[in-house]
Amino acid sequence: MTLRLGINPLTWTNDDMPELGAETPLETWLAEAREAGFEGIELGNKFPRTAAELSPILARHGLALVSGWYGARLLERDVEAELNAAEPHIALLSAMGCGVMVHAEVSRAIHGQRGTPLSRRPVLWEADWAVLIPRLAAFARRLKARGLHLAYHHHMGTVIETEAEIDRLMAETPPEVGLLLDTGHLSFAGGDPARVAQRHAGRIVHVHCKDIRAAVLERSRQRDLPFLAAVLEGVFTVPGDGCVDFSAVLRPLAARGYVGWLVVEAEQDPANAHPLTYARMGHDALSRFARAAFG
């Protein structure tokens, strides 16, 4: 597999706030994603969830399915129960030829709670780490046997959010647990995406390329906003439109021989950020950064 550019449907709508872009049909998302130059797209809330339905739709637009988010609850249920819950999702990704599954632990998560400030996000106690790590490792091994690499998505408002938590997760899990590096979420959490890319390049199996508007981030932190409120304020944008140094992020990945997807993911209110305009901006900027880093 070579380096490929994809996009997440959050440009057009939002799974946690489905009223955003609710009037825009799936066919528009797909046509505009392709028009902007992307080769693939991740799952969103209007996608059919069987390969028989989804495959011909994507084929009409010349798009591949990149992957799709799965919110796990391994702190609350054992590996067998989690695998049973995930089976329809795993089956879809496998049938569509995906290489990774986007995976986040959402037990106790607050990112979808519109009235809960981020300062109240959950943290893992030592007893929680002792439960999560072996279950996550076992889940990842079982997933790998199905041809999918687990791509752990650190995320604001969840139990794995900070740079230190990412470091511990990588230190205590086997290689089957891959890392999804999300430049926007890590920057929001106060981390350094370039430093994490340098430190964990060998474990990174998927990349979400999200930029940050620094002034909005500062206001969001000062006001201790809920995650979705910060999104509506415009904290995220596409690569090249904010303060993330994507050249510094991509260089260590290129040096380590990263292959796979670079995905533009920038949740915004489509009423304020015209989706096709921002999709094009993100594609063109990320293409420039990728060419400079990967050659």
UniProtKB/TrEMBL annotation:
Its EC number is 4.2.1.44. Keywords: Lyase. Pfam families: AP_endonuc_2. One of its GO terms (molecular function) is myo-inosose-2 dehydratase activity. The keyword Lyase applies. Residues 30-274 form the Xylose isomerase-like TIM barrel domain. It comes from the Bacteria. NCBIfam families: myo_inos_iolE. This is Myo-inosose-2 dehydratase.
